[in-house]
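Fold this sequence, please.
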Amino acid sequence: MFEGKNILITGASKGIGRVLAKELSMHGANIILLSKNETLLDSIYDEIADNTSTSPCIIKCDLGSLDELRSQEIANTIFQDYGSLDCIIHNAATIEKMSNIENFDLLSWKKIMNVNLTSSFLLSKHLLPLMKSSESPRIIFTSSSVGYEGKAFWGAYSVSKGGSKILSEILNEELSHIKNFKVFNFNPMATRTDLRALAFPAENPTYLKDPQELIPYYKWMISEKSNSSIKVNISFGDSI
C-alpha cells in the first residue's frame, strides 16, 4: 500500500509511534524513526530490518531541545538518505505533570511546549521543501480532546495541543495550492499508552483500546483515499 513512501514518525520508540512504525513498514514504507531513546530505537529498527525489505533510518533527537540548526541537520540527513519525504507524523508528546496554573513551574511548561508544539513547527518548517515532490504529501498531528476545550489541571499539555490544532489548520490553508497536500489533526481518544497512564494513574488500562486499533485511520490519512477530504480535524470514531 505504501511501497517506497518515506515517512518520519516522532516518538517512534514506543506506544502509538512504535506500532505505526512496524505496521507501515510492513506495507512497504521506509520509516524514519525519531526518538531520544537510543536503546528502544535500536530495538524497533532491528525488528523492522529483520521482517521487511524496507530501508528504515534512526534519528536520535531530544525534541525538548530541538532548534533551527538541529532541524536543518535532520532535513539534510533525510535528503541524503532518501531524497524526498512523503509524510510527517508528529506523534511525540510529554505531559510531565498534572497541576493547576498557580503551581505550574516554568521549566515543565517550557519542556511540554517544546516537545508537543515547537518541535512540530520546526520540523514542519524545515522538512516542507522535501515534501513538495511527493505525489500525496501528508503532515499528521496527534491531537487530544483537551486541545479542543481547556480543562483544569491539564496546563501546558492542553495549551500545546490547542496550539497544534491551530498550527495544523494554518498549514492546511497555506499548503492548499499544492496538489494532494493534506494536513490532518488526529485525536486518537483514550488509548493504552504510557502518557495516558501518567494522566490517569487509577485507570484500568485493560478497558482502553490498543494502539493497533488506530492503524486504519492512519492508513486512510496517508493513502490517496484521503486526497478528496476537506477535513483537517479527525477523531477516532469518525467515518473515513
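The mean pLDDT is 96. Residues 106-131 form the longest helix (26 residues).
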